[in-house]
């Protein structure tokens, strides 16, 4: 009896360790992959992937530029980053509830899970919601204080934190090649900070917020995997509870930081254009979760990381062109180091996973002959 209990505990511990490892490494369970996509013609699959990747790029880049406008536009002069983040969470929660209602009324037309606010579930997700608030708040604060061109470098340490947390929480060692790619990312980050300082555009406040955002992104992946069973594995239910919790937790912050008072004196508070842009930002915040999941579904988590790296490169170039900035060779080199290191880490992790999943053919033949 004791042996059976010990075996159950060992299996549960192993399952938790596997979940944390998947979260930190950005991998997925191979058993959950959609095999039906393999049956589609190659041309159709290629077109679907191209469309999904393009949709992800357009949504993500548009959201960054729109948030920069809302957070730091001279024409708005709105110094309420917490309220901007709160409103986007509110729009996302309302959209989730609205789609859930439509799915209930017209089950054949809209495919969306049924959402009912359960306080017990909301409490169980609260630790993730705190990390989620830190992630989106620090992301927006970083974007407020740094330029869009430097934004990618400013919050480029997520991969490094993934490796660090995998060691601290799982005692999981990382290969030399993976550590080498992390060193390249860190070098690119410091070179970028140095070059921003040399050009007189460095914001240490924004840089610190970027580092904190990177840490929260890594923690968010861990806690997401841990609390998914509380919402029956539904990402949309998790999104709903996360944003409802965030809206509630943001309210005291709005009071303490005096942002409600600042809003009261904001001259464009009754402007339809202002609220239209705010609502559009909320729509993009909702859409990015959908298109991210869609890109992972039609490709893979590793391909999603590669696409995100390429998107960051395009976003940086667009920002430099749009704002008519002039950057030095070393500044561009820092970006290439960050992007190259991120891409190399993704490639190394993919190669290591493939090596682990596909044993040496000679070893397989040997074991078969011995049997």
Automatic annotation (TrEMBL):
Membrane-spanning segments: 42-65, 85-109, 121-138, 150-169, 176-192, 204-223, 235-254, 274-294, 329-348
Pfam families: TPT
Main localization category: membrane
InterPro entries: EmrE-like (IPR037185), Sugar_P_trans_dom (IPR004853), TPT_transporter (IPR050186)
Record keyword Transmembrane present: yes
Organism superkingdom: Eukaryota
Keywords attached to this entry: Membrane, Transmembrane, Transmembrane helix
GO biological process: 'de novo' GDP-L-fucose biosynthetic process; GDP-fucose import into Golgi lumen; GDP-L-fucose salvage; negative regulation of Notch signaling pathway
Keyword Transmembrane helix in annotation: yes
Entry GO terms, CC: Golgi membrane
GO terms of molecular function: GDP-fucose transmembrane transporter activity
Membrane topology of the entry: Multi-pass membrane protein
Cellular compartment(s): Membrane
Function: Putative transporter.
Similarity field: Belongs to the TPT transporter family. SLC35E subfamily.
Protein name, per record: GDP-fucose transporter 1 isoform a
Gene this chain is encoded by: SLC35C1
